[in-house]
Specification:
The complex is a heterodimer of chains A (400) and B (250). By secondary structure, chain A is an alpha/beta fold. Chain A is built from eight helices and 22 strands. Chain A has helices spanning 4-9, 45-50, 87-93, 97-100, 111-118, 349-356, 362-375, 383-396; strands spanning 27-28, 62-67, 70-76, 82-86, 124-128, 138-144, 149-159, 164-173, 181-190, 195-203, 209-218, 223-230, 236-239, 242-245, 250-260, 264-267, 270-273, 279-289, 292-301, 306-316, 322-331, 336-345. A ten-stranded mixed beta sheet of chain A has the order 3-2-6-8-10-12-15-18-20-22. In chain A, strand 2 (62-67) and strand 3 (70-76) form a beta hairpin. The longest helix of chain A has 14 residues, at 362-375. In chain B, strand 4 (56-65) and strand 5 (68-69) form a beta hairpin. Chain B has one domain: P-loop containing nucleotide triphosphate hydrolases (Rossmann fold, 3-Layer(aba) Sandwich), CATH 3.40.50. In chain B, 46% of the residues are buried. The chains are: A alpha/beta (400), B alpha/beta (250). Chain A binds chain B through residues 348-351, 353-362, 364-365, 368-369, 371-376, and chain B through 51-55, 74-76, 78-80, 84-85, 87, 90-97, 100-101, 104-105, 128-129, 145, 148-149. Bound molecules: adenosine-5'-triphosphate and magnesium ion. Adenosine-5'-triphosphate (ATP) binds next to strand 2 and helix 1 of chain B.
Chain lengths: 400, 250
């Protein structure tokens, strides 16, 4: 663990990608937000539901919510093998956690991780004990409720050997808190033969800057899937989660985003295929509505028998923005099979006209194709996500 | 008789080449016209131009539908007026499932989804339209979509080509139902829907009958006649020396 002085020096370190954010511009969000007993009877309900977090918690194993920098709700159905806690509480209960965390993520990575580290930021702690399969998803929600404030959270997820978990994370800003910064550091630790599906749905304000920092360290023969959805206008997002795969493990990243005018989205991910026979797939589908879009993907093959594919597809519906696809493959041994595919352009005219020949007007035809294009990146889209996707496509007014 | 479709001196380009070079053609209400012609003569281009696809560009002439000039209309405007088309080679529509399109065209409660088995398409409702469909599957899918749409005037581009002997009955009878208002049997069927049908083999004519046939060559309607006569002629002599052209004056 680096000493505090070293981490302090990292406060000036810009992120590897994306526009630099002046941290001084924001005040610290409160550590003690209002505590919400009943999600269904809360003013935050609509923000949550917009990002796939259901307030009735039916078919959910539990919910943990953060408003600004503090926990404001935590409910868990009693379930053997599952812990849902705030990180602060978890540190009290698990003595070893203090030394365990900040291993997957280097606090000196950049100014965002450094500040989160130095803050001793709270966040959620999810743990699945060895051999336990948690059937219903756990939902986590992060809401920014103060304008001109910075939200900084540090989340730790542990899925032990043979465990499995599904997480749905919704992030949002209250209408009055659009000019804000979100930094979410997530460390994920997976043992052997473990499964984790992690879906993030984001809906921010038009000026919100978002800098998630995620790293997942995975043992042997485990499966990790990471879905990321952002469909509404945002100031800027720069996200580049990293996964390290042990032998026989696999990682799948699916990204679905719309870059509206004024939005700057730089998203992607890196998978280090370290173990023999590791597999990875990075899929990104994006739409530019006049915003700035950069889809990155990087696959690094370090062991024999590695198989990986990367796909970046982007449809440009409106001029005025820019779209960049940067697929990268890197191999350090001969016995690998790594491929990539990238395509940027408009929707083929003949496809639109085909649907129009069935009586759909141009807007309907375009949004039907766009909906299919975007949801094609995620297999078996959760219903909440499908609804959210439809609503966003409706709002986006795609046929211009 | 009311004119359903009237094409006057139509010239159109595709890929910067003039393909249609002065087409004149009139189809009356309730009439089925059949279009023969050698490969590359411009038959599909004519149908695409009537539907309004932007792959072709009209440079001269006009297309009237039920008396209204549709030459400049968009594809969906034409579809809403009642024109429907079965393409020879429809594009793959990635990401759009057949069932979703059917619901969008005919409304969720239309029962069209329940009709899918009659077209042997029930297993295709969740598939992306045309993606990986076989030749015969594409035809059945196109017919199911047309059935959802209920057009008044149907453009059929080689509906039977690539269809095996077992399925030809299905295709034939579904085309028949489209033209004869559902359940036409024998001579009592009432035909309301008009159509223009391209065929090389004439097999589809066993199911629908046709009122008049035309032969297209080099982007023009070369001659016309009774469907059976023209077909026999083409089968015997090919398109090279069309006896009909010598005998029939347009
Ligand atoms: N977009 C295009 N660019 C260039 N040439 C084109 C284009 N579309 C059609 N053509 C040409 O126009 C001619 C007529 O094509 P069309 O498809 O209309 O023929 P067809 O009569 O339907 O033939 P077939 O019986 O083989 O289906 C062909 O020579 C074809 O190559
Ligand atoms: Mg043709």
């Amino acid at each position: 663990m680096p000493d505090n002085q070293t981490v302090k020096e990292a406060l000036n370190k810009k992120g590897a990608f994306g526009e630099d954010i002046d941290l001084e511009r924001y005040e610290d969000g409160t550590n003690a937000p209002e505590f919400v007993e009943d999600l269904q009877d809360s003013e935050y309900q609509r923000y949550m539901e917009n990002v796939g977090v259901v307030s009735d918690e039916i078919n959910r194993s539990g919910t943990i919510m953060f408003i600004d920098n503090g926990m404001s709700h935590c409910s868990a159905k009693v379930q053997e093998g599952l812990e849902i806690l705030s990180l602060k509480e978890a540190l009290k209960q698990h003595e070893g956690l203090k030394d365990f965390m900040w291993n997957a993520m280097d606090p000196t990575k950049d100014k965002y991780t450094a500040k989160t580290y130095l803050d001793d930021a709270d966040g959620y702690f999810l743990r699945v004990k060895a051999g336990h399969h948690i059937k219903a998803p756990v939902q986590t929600c992060m809401l920014i409720n103060s304008n001109k404030s910075a939200q900084r959270l540090h989340n730790v997820i542990i899925v032990e050997d043979g465990g499995s978990l599904e997480i749905i994370t919704g992030c949002s800003t209250a209408n009055h808190a659009g000019d804000s910064l979100h930094v979410g550091v997530s460390e994920i630790y997976m043992g052997d033969n473990a499964n984790l599906s992690f879906s993030m749905i984001h809906s921010w304000g038009k000026q919100t800057n978002v800098r998630p920092r995620t790293r997942c360290v995975i043992g042997k023969n485990s499966n990790y899937s990471n879905n990321y959805v952002i469909l509404n206008p945002v100031g800027s997002i720069q996200s580049f989660p990293v996964a390290d795969l042990g032998a026989g493990s696999s990682a799948t990243y699916n990204t679905m985003c719309i870059a509206h005018e004024g939005s700057d989205i730089d998203s992607g991910g890196l998978v280090n295929l370290n173990g023999v026979g590791a597999r990875a797939e990075i899929m990104s589908r994006s739409i530019s509505m006049g915003g700035k879009l950069c889809a990155r993907g990087r696959l690094v093959g370090n062991s024999p028998g590695v198989k990986a594919h990367l796909e970046c597809r982007s449809i440009i519906l409106k001029d005025g923005g820019s779209t960049v696809a940067i697929p990268e493959l890197e191999a350090h041994v001969a016995d690998v099979e790594m491929t990539h595919e990238a395509a940027v352009g408009k929707i083929a005219r003949d496809q639109i006209e085909y649907l129009m020949s069935r009586g759909l007007d141009e807007d309907q035809a375009v949004s039907m194709i766009v909906r299919g294009f975007l949801s094609g990146s995620i297999n078996g889209l959760p219903e909440a996500l499908q609804k959210e996707l439809d609503a966003a496509i409706e709002q986006a007014n795609l046929g211009d | 008789m009311t004119e359903m479709l009237k094409i006057v001196n139509l010239h159109a380009e595709a890929g910067e080449r003039e393909i249609l070079r002065g087409v004149d053609l009139t189809i009356n209400e309730g009439e089925t016209a059949v279009l023969f012609g050698p490969n590359g003569s411009g038959k599909s281009t004519l149908l695409s131009t009537i539907m309004g696809y932007s792959t072709t560009k009209v440079t001269e002439g006009e297309i009237l539908f039920k008396g209204e000039d549709i030459t400049e209309m968009t594809v969906d405007q034409r579809a809403k007026l009642g024109i429907g088309m079965m393409m020879q080679r429809p594009p793959n529509i990635y990401g759009v499932r057949l069932g979703d399109l059917l619901n969008a065209t005919s409304g969720k409660n239309s029962g069209i989804i329940d009709d899918a088995p009659k077209f042997k398409m029930e297993r295709f409702l969740d598939r992306e339209i045309n993606v990986g469909f076989s030749g015969g599957e594409i035809k059945r899918s196109e017919l199911l979509q047309l059935t959802a749409q209920k057009p008044e005037f149907i453009l059929l581009d080689e509906p039977e080509s690539g269809v095996d002997l077992e399925n030809i009955d299905l295709i034939g009878s579904k085309v028949r139902e489209l033209l004869y208002d559902g359940h036409g049997c024998g001579g009592s069927a009432q035909r309301h829907v008009s159509s223009l049908v391209i065929t090389h083999t004439g097999q589809i004519l066993d199911y629908i009958g046709a009122d008049r046939a035309y032969v297209m060559k080099n982007g023009r309607i070369q001659c016309s006649g009774r469907p059976a006569d023209l077909l026999k002629d083409i089968k015997e002599h090919g398109y090279g020396e069309c006896a009909a052209c010598q005998t029939i004056k347009l």
